[in-house]
Amino acid sequence: MATEETVQLNELHAPQQASIDAFNSILPDLKGELAKLRRDHDKHEPEYFRAVKDLSDDDLTSFSSSDLEAVRVAVSAYGLHLFGKVKIPTLNNAYIHVRIFGSAKDGTDGSSADEREYKLHSIHTEEVVKDDGDRVYRAIFGKNDELEWFDT
């Protein structure tokens, strides 16, 4: 399994066409999973999505590939790991962080963009335990929040 310790993410940069194409290929899945994730978290820990609590699912998922503002990429023996920062256009300073995995299509080595297929790996949710034991949860990030390796 690829981990932060076993692969090197490149520097944050504007998405190039290959990243935009990968993002577009998982966009319907991403929108469905984001709405589902919010509904699931709202049942038990609504703080994750508190920043967007007044948005409808349609507003929350109104982003397109033009809202993919920045990416970081890592290559492992398993494939390509693409991390993206996506602007939620209906709010100021509201972003989600997504992870996409690209692997070789059957019968290819995956060395070119048209030989890869992409899947949504995860949408980042964060739980931070403060020194006093209090927990802070979020799935909505700001423009200045770093896009770092995540598994959740």
Strand arrangement, major sheet: 1-2-3-4
Give the termini separation: 14 Å
Helix tally equals: 2
Number of E-type strands = 6
Element-by-element helix/strand order: HHEEEEEE
The major β-sheet equals:
4 strands, antiparallel
How do you describe this structure in short?
The chain is α+β, with helices and mostly antiparallel strands and 152 residues long.
Describe this structure in words.
With 152 residues, the chain is α+β, with helices and mostly antiparallel strands. The chain has helices spanning 17-44, 57-60; strands at residues 68-75, 80-87, 95-104, 116-123, 126-129, 135-138. A four-stranded antiparallel sheet has the order 1-2-3-4, covered by helices on one side. It has a two-stranded antiparallel sheet with strand order 5-6. Strand 2 and strand 3 form a beta hairpin. 27% of the residues are buried.
What secondary-structure arrangement, pairings included, does this model have?
Elements: H1 17-44, H2 57-60, E1 68-75, E2 80-87, E3 95-104, E4 116-123, E5 126-129, E6 135-138
Antiparallel strand pairs: 1-2, 2-3, 3-4, 5-6
Defining traits:
152 residues, alpha+beta, 2 helices, 28% strand
